[in-house]
Amino acid sequence: MATSRFRLVFHVPPSAAAACKSAIFAAGAGRQGNYSECCFTTALGTGQFRPTAGANPAIGKVGTLEEVEELCVETLCVGEETTKKVVAALKTAHPYEEPSYSVYKLEDF
């Protein structure tokens, strides 16, 4: 049976992108065949959020709508355990209290 593959997609301010990439690669993300540290980063977009009561935002303040320039990073993770380690590393390295990320299970055709 083939090992499960997953696509991790996350948003990050440009100033924190290198640290987040280093952390996820160290945890096992971005490995494809004879290549490592593989990812795709898209140009700047705008993230939006409003911290609510109880939040401890890295940017902005509770109750105020924030718009922040962010990059979108996509990478491959092979194996469920590796993917869990990669997500944990992302959460540790990311400057936001609640990083925006998605994990998609991939099919092999």
From TrEMBL:
Gene3D superfamilies: 3.30.70.120. It comes from the Eukaryota. This is ATP phosphoribosyltransferase.
